[in-house]
Specification:
Layout: H1 11-23, E1 31-37, E2 43-49, E3 52-54, E4 58-64, H2 68-75, E5 78-85, E6 90-99, H3 103-112, H4 115-119, E7 150-164, E8 171-176, E9 184-186
Length: 188
């Protein structure tokens, strides 16, 4: 049975939406940094593109299963994201864990990509030595089947922290899923 009732969003989602709106149509408003633990135990940080929300507190990103990042997530599913909104002068730190997705979800998300967006998964494996003769297509049309290495990273957010630099003193707020997303002001 489905409900027509809207999803109850955590309070930090409304603030984040407002910050994203202030960024306007700038592509950088969709870029966030993903921190993982490398296979050698050292930290890794990469920039990924925000793809959307699933439910109230699951964020979606896409990655390539041939990348080290994917192997790191298999070993340690806990991650932290840092999402800086320069125009809004706000930084969000989102902590959570990766939830593997089924084949149907992967296929549905593949179809939402533009031909230029799909092209990245037609390139050679990331991080490998460059083969100057390899093909780097600019587009993959709608008929292109989803490659096995296209992966939806759905992250279950368990902790959200805002650092608002737009006022004096700066404002810092913490919300934790286990605490019912209760707002906890912190010293900046």
């Amino acid at each position: 049975m489905t409900s027509d009732r809207p999803i109850d969003l955590p309070p930090w989602r409304a603030r984040l939406r407002g910050a994203r709106e202030r960024e306007g149509r700038q592509p950088t408003g969709r870029w966030l940094q993903l921190a993982t633990i490398g296979l050698d135990g050292t930290p890794r940080v990469r920039t990924l593109v925000f793809r959307g929300w699933h439910g109230s507190d699951q964020l979606e990103l896409y990655t390539d299963a041939r990348s080290e990042k994917y192997q790191e997530l298999i070993r340690q599913s806990n991650v932290e994201l840092c999402w800086l909104m320069p125009k809004a002068k706000q930084q969000y730190r989102l902590r959570g864990s990766w939830l593997p997705q089924d084949t149907q979800t992967q296929a549905m998300r593949w179809q939402t990509l533009s031909p230029r967006g799909r092209a990245l998964w037609g390139w050679p494996a990331p991080g490998q030595p460059l083969d100057r003769k390899a093909s780097f297509p600019e587009e993959l049309d709608d008929s292109a089947e989803r490659p096995e290495h296209f992966v939806v990273l759905r992250l279950q957010i368990k902790r959200a922290e805002l650092l608002d630099l737009s006022r004096h003193p700066h404002q810092r707020i913490l919300w934790c899923r286990d605490d019912g997303w209760r707002e906890q002001p912190l010293n900046p």
